[in-house]
Amino acid sequence: MSYSKGNNKPAQVSNMDFLTRAFQRLAIQDRRPPQAFNFDCASLIFDHLAIEDIFRLERVSKTWRDYVRDWMSGPGMHKLFPDAIRANSEAGAGIGSGKRAGGADPADRFKRFLREGTCSERWETGRANVANEYVCSNVPHLHSSSPGIYTAGDYLVYTSGWHIFGTRLGQEKGAGGTPSSYPVRELDAANANLRRAGDVRDIRVHASGLAVVYNNSVHNHCWQTFDIKTGNMLWTTAIPQYINARDYNVALGWHRLYRFDKDLSVLDSYDIRTGALVSSQQTGLILEPTWGTRQGVIWRLQGRDVLVTIDARQVDPSDTLSKKKMLCIMDTETHQIIQRIPLEHANAPRPYQQRCGPLVHVSSRHDDHAFAVITAGCEQDGAGMQQVRTIRTFQYHAREGKFKERTIEHVDLRGFRFSNRTAFDIDPFRRFLIAQDSSTGRLCRYPTPYVFAASPHTLPPVPASPLPLFVGDDTTTPYPVVMNPPKPGATGATFASPWKAKVMRNRLYLYYWKKHSDDGVTLRANTRTVALTFGSSAPSIPDPEAATCLHHPDGLAEKEM
């Protein structure tokens, strides 16, 4: 959503500077609204105040709060987000009218649009406002795409030794107003019953601040659900001993936990807060979801939870490099397939090379109910990285209850030289990619012009200039999270080796190993994650009560299915 700054000054307004300064003082110290003051006067002044001062006025008193929220719902929305008004004009009374649209408060929608505009501006300049780093030592062998470190929304959980820790990302204001990181809490050590690190088979983080732990110890084969904010365990339930790693298929909805067997013929649902079994039913389906433990995610369409998974049955045995799959969207209550979307992607020619998807990205823009599927071709560079990616974008149409294909684009990476083929991600909606630059070893942002094209091999094979990432508004030194490994023979050198980068909404997650080189031997010291936040420190999760929401709460930084 674009943020219209425009020319905020009327042609001639006498004493406007004086009035603005007066209102700034009111925003800070005065709790008494002026006598005979009306909304038109307030609106005129709000047009000339900084957003920060308007937010301060909202906290002064109820009268000021009402004035501010009325301005946000009407004149403020028209002034700052005119394209939002046009895009939603077909919905009737809604954005900018001062009335609730689709169950959302107009003032809250204004704040969401504002956060997105700030976030987009920071992505454009590559400037994060805060970076949080966490260390995970003694990583067990977990059946997950993020060994030892797990993220969802504003929360992060990681293992260290035989312990599980959780925290909230971002910063809070401490004593005296000084910003500091949120506290790290151990998740109920007395009840976790971990006898060895390998007892933790998998962890799912819920964006509301919950952690679901799959405990696979001999004496305690169960789920355990913790409140990350307090560290307390909420509930636990036993899992049949015959369930192995490939049969452990769990997807988290905003209010339900769903478990299904490996062919999706049985679907169980539990209350996410209490662990009570809500239903257990035969689905009548026989699917072959993708490998691993993350075999489906939960979206919400028109107030109903739907399971989104990929059926991998339709394989052409004569073609070893391509695999046809179907993206399946199933109603969790009726078990009817709402839609099947054919997909096609290429397998890596060798098992150890990068797996090429498909990757599913959901639009980060507010009220844009769209997702993109990224698939890769067979053309690779010397490191086994696919050179051409295809992006298919789908838009949800509520009247038909279906997704319709919106665009097809291609990402052409010929001419680029990346140091790492896994520390790489594409944002198809904000139109940039994150990768490790081969010349500096830094993680960089690559802009649109040399990346996106309407058809493959139409872009000049000239690399775009990478933009380094910074933390803080005044910093001139790029954030040094990634360094090239030392030269052969170097001793006593410590360096970082990234293994995954993920862009999700207002954050960039980088997972990497901290390594130490001594006498020609490279040792892995620990696993770390860095969360770079771009834009507002307000909660980054979408509205959990929205009737339609494509952002699943189960690991918002995990998008591969």
Please tell me about this protein's structure.
- 39% of the residues are buried.
- Strand 11 and strand 12 form a beta hairpin.
- The chain folds into two domains: 110 residues, no CATH class; 406 residues, Methylamine Dehydrogenase, Chain H (7 Propeller).
- The radius of gyration is 25 Å and the shape is globular.
- Helix 1 packs across helix 3 and helix 3 packs antiparallel against helix 4.
- The strands form nine sheets. Strands 21-22-23-24-28 form a five-stranded antiparallel β-sheet, with no helix packed on it.
- With 561 residues, it is mainly β.
- The N terminus and C terminus are likely disordered.
Quick tags:
561 residues; mainly beta; 2 domains; 4-stranded antiparallel β-sheet; globular; disordered C terminus; F-box_dom
Order of strands in the sheet with the most strands? 21-22-23-24-28
Largest sheet: 5 strands, antiparallel
Specify the helix fraction band. Answer: 10-25%
Rg, rounded, reads 25 Å
How far apart the termini lie comes to: 28 Å
Query: Which shape, going by the Cα principal axes?
Result: globular
Which structural category fits the helices and strands?
A: mainly beta
Percentage beta strand = 35-45%
- Average residue pLDDT: 71
Number of domains: 2
